[in-house]
Amino acid sequence: MKRFFWILFVMSLWGHLLLAQEKTVSGIVISTEDGLPMIGVAVVDKQTMNGVTTNEKGEFSMTVSPRTKTLHLSYLGYKTKEVSITGRSMKIEMEPDMVAIDEVMVVAYGTGKKSTFTGSASVVKKESLEKIKASNVTQALQGQSSGVQVLNNSGEPGEDATIMIRGIGSMNASSSPLYVVDGTAYDGYLNAINPNDIESMTILKDASATALYGSRAANGVVMITTRKGSSEKGQINFRSTWGFSSLAVGLPDQLSPDQLSQLTWRALYNGYLDSGYQDEDSRSYASYYVMGEFGNNPYSIDMPVGTDGKMDPNAKLNYWGDWRNALLKSRLRQEYTIDFSGKNKKADYFISAGYLNDKGVFSIQRFERYSTRANLNYSVNKWLKVGTNISLSHSVREGSAGDQTVWLLRTMPTLYPIYEWDGATNAYRLDKNGNRIFDYGNYRTSWSGTNPLADDTYNKAPWTHDDVSNRTYFEITFIPGLKWRTNFSVDFYQYNYDGYVNSEYGFAAGYKGSATKESDRNLSYTINNLLTYEKSIGDHSLSVLLGQEAYSLEYKLLSASKQGFPFPGVTEIGSAAVMSSMNSYTDKYRLLSWLSRVEYDYKDRYYISGSFRTDGSSRFHPDNRWGQFWSLGGSWRISNEEFMKPYSSWLDNLKLKASYGAVGNDNLGTYYAYQGLYATGMNNYRDPGVMVSRLSNKELKWETNLQFNVGLDFAVFNKLSGSVEWFSRKSKDLLFTLPMAPSTGMSGIDRNIGDVKNQGVEFSLNYAAISNKNFKWTIDLNGTSYKNRITKLPQAEINSGVFKWREGESRYNFWGIEYAGVNPETGNDQYWKTIYETNDKGEKVVKERVKTENYNEVTSDSQQKYLGDAIPKLFGGFTNNFSYKGIDLSFMIYYSIGGKLYDSDYAQSMYYRRGYSMHPDMLDSWTPENPNAEFPRLTNYYNYANYMSSYTS
Predict the structure, then answer these.
(1) Using one digit for the tens of pLDDT, what is the confidence trace for 227-278?
(2) Three-point CA angle 128, 2, 477, nearest 5°
(3) pTM of the prediction?
(4) What's the angle, vertex CA 905, arms to CA 903 and CA 911, rounded to 5?
(5) Mean pLDDT score of the chain, rounded to an integer?
(6) DSSP per-residue letters across 474-536
(7) Phi, psi angles (nearest 5°) of residue 457
(8) Is 145 helix (H, G, I), strand (E, B) or coil?
(9) DSSP state of 177
């Protein structure tokens, strides 16, 4: 945040006949927050000038030649400014220099200077957040910080992004960071926070930075600090933004009805040949049955595809489904925010209200949010300060249009219409109001009952969220440096779902519609008491923190579903006839903690910090409830050493730092980690019944992260600043299910029996390329490279979808069959097969590798192999900011280099499947006339092998 320091120069300009040439004066006096002046150095023609004085107001006065026309103002940590002398008294505003300033940053349970911080953290300021129009604060972090991976998987407006800090912290438990809002862990919906209310976001990455959050900090911490009043004059700000959203990666070209019909004919023709039919019969059968593969015929004639596999010129389309044009709509995104802020010697205030309407990229989705915030702080007297920060939010989400919608747009045949077609009248069917009736496609061989556009019209199912969050505190100063602060925080949300499936159209028409109501209520509160002491004596500075914290959470759910409504338009479940389901439950979670931190520095050169926290979690048995988490850190401000003074003209900062510590993860997917659980509802008519669903384990405990970090921070030429860090993160005691004998009636029991390790390097660079009166250009670049390795498993290997977990391998290393291309003679897929032999020592060794078309020969583990790691070799962000006379322009490029991707949509669309479309690549599939094609021969036999091979990874 820019802070403006006002400098009053009272210049008495009168003639000095002894000065023969013009003198240029340089100097600055800055008034600090307590009103005391900090005296800068006056320089005349690059020579230090004695006799510069200031008065009690911090006013600067000196005598110069009447011929002096220009002042050059400079001071460490502020941008050099050149101004013309316009009178005897001048008022000049100086701006902090973002490269050289000693930045104050938010850390665990307080604030600290970046120069004295021994841990690893990065700060994203509101200026950066404002340039990224995100409906959820997590989405705005992409590319903004080294070591942070942000994945926006669903594309839903308002949806939380997946964030991983320095790799994968767990195999089965959560790998999400802890979110802290204004000093306290946050339990509300992240999309309830208006990004315009945020002052900064600090990402804490290593143990030295996160250990004070103990058992919840294994995956890093995201600190969100909201705005408060900063201007003594008071401010009113209004912001309105408009924009549009679109898919970042476009969809592949879509097959037209004619193209799909011809490819389907080719698949049927080859299938009949493979079944032993003669060529002529295969052609005839393929032409006769091609439309039957879809269950409908949109053409004007019965056999639109001839026996030569080409479209009959007489075949005209009666209708077709333009699903992409209907679902992909670039609609206006609107956001409006107004805030009032200000401060005086006793108080500061910030009050805001915001409205957001984000319709996303699909026509069937909408996210709407109303939010307000009031942040008030008041100094009652010299020893007591109080404050409260309350936020309210109401949001509505409609239309779930994420991965499933993209899948539909890639594979829904264009032969399937959006609206019902009446063959008798050769026109679309209309309802009683004259509107087209959506087609749910009961005739379809695939996609029966699917029409997201119809659901959006007929079956409204909004989610509403009401969030209330409050942070209240009082702070007592006993003596200078000794403070007591008590914080009380509450997070509450109410989630309501109103699902309705209409009684006239679609699958629910058969039982006269259905409705589902769900209400989720979450209430959590945190009370902490913090005692801090800060003291400086000569070259020594000491800071001590002692604290206690209690946390409580209660979550309640109630849901019910009924079906059978008396007539259309009635949606409340009390009107329905048949109860389908009903459910309710309550979850509770408690955490009690004690924490401490000590920080020491000597001569502003050597810094040491240590922290300790012990947590008692209700997730674990009393015998194993308490865990200890700690950190040690140190740094050396090399640039402040005497022997570095010869380099001070260009070296602004050089700091070496290192830290080591242990943090934990108690988010194991259940609030009752150690307890045995029972499944209810196992009833015998009217007699209630239960069944054991999970075995108890009193020995279960936290997953623990041991983290080591070493880094170098630097700033040179008052232009370039940055950092380079190496980290090692070992997660041990990971939660795994240990298999049990089937005779026990249980598949397994949860144990802490796994380890995983992440190691890597990250860097960040900031370069002030150009900075003058009218034009500014800054460049930010960050990057991260790390490797993930499993170091301990409860068994030799574990299959996890398209991955296989083995010790020494990455958590996200793909496992499968190695594809060997298309056989140009047959057009069939080929796979690499390994032939083994036994050597003289009785060892099994590889003899040779050959190609085979027989998929069954390569399904064993001895034939499959690792196909590549999904983790990129390097990822990060590249940002440029330009400013010219008040006009700003910026762009950010998020990059990811290396790393395999598995495209299941592509895999499934590269082979014929009845009632589905195919990828346009298959237009170039193998035929006798095209023997060197990259893609295999089409047949109506779906080859599942390639769906799981290196062909699509």
Answers:
(1) 999 888 889 999 999 988 887 778 888 999 999 999 999 999 999 999 999 9
(2) 115
(3) 0.86
(4) 110
(5) 86
(6) EEEEEETTEEEEEEEEEEEEEEEEEEEE-SSSSGGGGGT-EEEEEEEEEEEEEEEEEEEEEEE
(7) -90, -45
(8) coil
(9) P
